[in-house]
Amino acid sequence: MTIEVKVPTLGESVTxxxxxxxxxxxxxxxxxxxxxxxxxxxxxxxxxxxPAAGTMGQQLFAAGANVSVGALLATIxxxxxxxxAQAPTLRTEPAPAAPAAPAAxxxPAAPAAxxxxxxxxxxxxxxxxxxxxxxxxGIDPATVKxxxxxxxxxxxDVIAAAQAKAASPAPAVSAPAAAAAAATAAPAxxxxxxxxxxxxxxxxxAKRLKDAQDTAAxxxxxxxxxxxxxxxxxxxxxxxxxxxxxVKLGFMSFFAKAAVxxxxxxxxxxxxxxGDEIVYFDYVDLSVAVSAPNGLVVPVxxxxxxxxxxxIEKGIVALGKKARxxxxxxxxxxxxxxxxSNGGVFGGLMSTPIINPPQSAVLGLHRIEDRPxxxxxxxxxxxxxxxxxSYDHRIIxxxxxxxxxxxxxxxxxxxxxxxxxx
Length: 422
Description:
Layout: E1 2-6, E2 16-22, E3 29-30, E4 35-40, E5 45-49, E6 54-59, E7 66-68, E8 72-77, H1 110-116, H2 128-137, H3 155-167, H4 175-184, H5 200-215, E9 218-226, H6 228-245, H7 252-265, E10 272-274, E11 277-279, E12 286-288, E13 290-292, E14 295-297, E15 300-301, H8 309-325, H9 330-333, E16 338-342, E17 361-365, E18 369-375, E19 378-392, H10 398-413, H11 416-420
Parallel strand pairs: 12-16, 16-17
Antiparallel strand pairs: 1-8, 2-4, 2-7, 3-6, 4-5, 6-8, 9-19, 10-11, 12-15, 13-14, 17-19, 18-19
Helix pairs in contact: 2-3, 7-8, 7-10
């Protein structure tokens, strides 16, 4: 019996996706609900699970092809393909005849060969991030112990294997082997190019950011913030906080709470333009910029104005984990009234973040560094951070933007304000 696998519903107003990669190849056994393919939409990556157990049958589209919701994607046979039987093949255009092979063709490097097939002849399913790490570190994925979900390799597995390889002594190389390696090495100074098609997610990110520049009247205001009080509070309570709530106390929950104070006092910073109307929200759904393997995504922590510090931290950690694993859903990405982007985790000193349409403002956080400042007429060293608030000048005046950023600064420098709503 042949079971059809169709492109699932992808979310509201999403009608098309791109096949990111096939996780199962024709002839391989498939378990019920086991992922067989990953699809990339304009916002998230979605795994297609097997509707029944059996053997992977025909794949009707190649990786990189665009598919519509409801289209027949693949088939699953309810019995194992007999030994020696020809497995269903991928539907592609016929390839041109290859030229005659030379007497001795060079053997591909271990990582590149392993990406195509495992030692057993079965294809290895690697995410784009893992595939990139394998090629970058020159690691054979077949030799790496996988710790990810369903026995999959993670980027961290590859990095750990590379570090272990670097720490181990290099094996002695015989003179003939060294000469052969030198003969196959690329000429010194050779220039190379690589063309990689943009993923659907990257194309959407590019379009939305450009649209924001073309549509909104963007302006950025800056301030700096003394992080001494927040760092002291975190150092004092982090152990007890983690013991009680099961999550680490980070800086994002402080900034989320500080942003709520500012947004409640200045509703236009939490508003949006829809047509010829301005929509004001009496709640705060916080979009948190997260770096995922396929690009920057902004999943949403909802009702931040009603959440505790622990609930905010748990929400951010959960969304970050899903982003790294590529399991964010359309619901995770939907909505959002204000965004916080923390470029400081990458070492950024200052930036002008771009708003996340249709939102009207975004708060940019940056790295913390000791700098000399004047306090009570004396020069002292304090852990300082630059803050940036980019906003749509069409509905947010300069006074409101500066006041909002000043409110956030004051709440961070005196966290007691977060408790007394001041």
